[in-house]
């Protein structure tokens, strides 16, 4: 249990700058809440008020109903992991010692702290051969993983992450995001994640708080709702281009009707399919895995479908992928239909363009668009 409540929180700095203005919102237990917004909108200030690196001028921040101002900062921070950009590792300590620092401070003996550190490094996907190196001997992405491991060391229920993945290249960034989602599925921490990147926000957030300059909350919603129904022009603009398409990432493929009459085994005689009215057929192997598309009018005179050269195909995983993935699969297939497979890659059926159009109509209808 660790729910965070902002109750009319204002931060006015000494020079009069109002960084956050009467912010009220709830960060639910066990979820990732992302604070996103343009530079200077008060994201970092809001985050740091939670662990009292900055104290609010007005209002209250409650942790499970207890005002953080009544908890002394060291005690408070013991229950709150903190990850920042460029990891902020101690440069003169080995990787394993960086992670073991907090358990050590908590009074664990050396071996137990070290074991815990190794376990966490493994968990965040770091090659354990790197444990005895120093931070400067690691890549930016590796250092970030260590930063996450260190924040998790005391097993805090709350994790604050301030632009943790901003300093690494897009590919490493994507893998760190995946890793965080994988970890979170196991750990269920209450996470507040700050970013200025809206794509990162909708990918990671269970809920996304969009802030505007001056620390005003513009909208707080699940990513799919945010993309479907931005509250105003500011949010719409901040979400950027391709909002409609991006939204399809959050729509499951479940509603898409599949046809099962468009697949044929590679062992079938060509003569048996020549008279079909369908222009394209999906060929499958004996285990019902896709081999590709064949154009019926271009089939050889005789033989089996194994003798026809199947063209490349796109697939999506039924029940797991989004409508966006299904649509993408159609673009990778000459038939413009997508092959639906199960988790083990066996064909469940074919989603035709008509079936996808129907599904898209339902989404557009439901958006109030
Ligand atoms: N110590 C300070 N004294 C005065 N003003 C400050 C101080 N720290 C931050 N500010 C101002 O408060 C506002 C919010 O800053 P904050 O760092 O919270 O924004 P942010 O949304 O995290 O920005 P960024 O994405 O650029 O990091 C900005 O206008 C900033 O200039």
TrEMBL record:
* EC number(s) per entry: 7.6.2.9
InterPro entries documented for this protein: AAA+_ATPase (IPR003593), ABC_transporter-like_ATP-bd (IPR003439), ABC_transporter-like_CS (IPR017871), CBS_dom_sf (IPR046342), P-loop_NTPase (IPR027417)
MF terms (GO), sorted A to Z:
ABC-type quaternary ammonium compound transporting activity; ATP binding; ATP hydrolysis activity
Pfam families for the chain: ABC_tran
Give the top-level enzyme category. Answer: translocase
Keywords annotated in UniProt: ATP-binding, Nucleotide-binding, Transport
Q: Please list the residue ranges annotated as the ABC transporter domain.
A: 4-239
Superkingdom, according to UniProt?
Bacteria
Q: Which family does it belong to?
A: Belongs to the ABC transporter superfamily.
Its protein name is ABC-type quaternary amine transporter
């Amino acid at each position: 249990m660790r729910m965070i409540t902002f109750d009319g929180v204002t931060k006015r700095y000494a020079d009069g700058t109002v960084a956050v203005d009467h912010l009220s919102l709830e960060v639910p237990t066990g979820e990732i809440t992302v604070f996103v917004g343009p530079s200077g909108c008060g994201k970092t200030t809001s985050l740091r008020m939670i662990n009292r690196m900055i104290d609010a001028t007005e209002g209250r921040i409650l942790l499970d109903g207890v005002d953080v101002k009544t908890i002394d900062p060291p005690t408070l921070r013991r229950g709150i992991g903190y990850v920042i950009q460029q990891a902020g590792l101690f440069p003169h300590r080995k990787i394993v010692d960086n992670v073991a620092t907090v358990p050590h401070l908590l009074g664990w003996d050396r071996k137990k702290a070290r074991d815990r550190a190794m376990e966490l490094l493994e968990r965040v996907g770091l090659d354990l051969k790197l444990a005895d190196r120093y931070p400067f001997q690691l890549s930016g992405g590796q250092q970030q993983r260590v930063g996450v491991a260190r924040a998790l060391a005391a097993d805090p229920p709350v994790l604050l992450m301030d632009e943790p993945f901003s300093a690494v290249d897009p590919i490493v960034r994507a893998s760190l995001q995946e890793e965080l989602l994988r970890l979170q599925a196991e750990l269920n921490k209450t996470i507040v994640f700050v970013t200025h990147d809206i794509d990162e926000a909708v990918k990671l957030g269970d809920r996304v708080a969009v802030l505007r300059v001056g620390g005003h909350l513009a909208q707080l919603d699940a990513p799919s709702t945010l993309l479907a129904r931005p509250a105003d022009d500011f949010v719409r603009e901040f979400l950027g281009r391709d909002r409609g398409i991006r939204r399809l990432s959050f729509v499951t493929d479940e509603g898409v009707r599949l046809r099962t009459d468009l697949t044929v085994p590679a062992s079938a005689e060509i003569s048996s399919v020549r008279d079909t009215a369908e222009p394209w057929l999906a060929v499958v192997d004996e285990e019902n895995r896709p081999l590709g598309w064949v154009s019926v009018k271009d089939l050889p005179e005789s033989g089996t479908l194994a003798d026809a050269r199947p063209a490349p195909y796109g697939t999506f995983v039924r029940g797991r992928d989004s409508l966006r993935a299904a649509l993408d699969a159609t673009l990778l297939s000459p038939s413009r239909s997508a092959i639906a497979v199960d988790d083990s890659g066996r064909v469940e059926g074919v989603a035709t363009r008509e079936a996808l159009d129907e599904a898209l109509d339902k989404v557009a209808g439901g958006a109030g668009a």
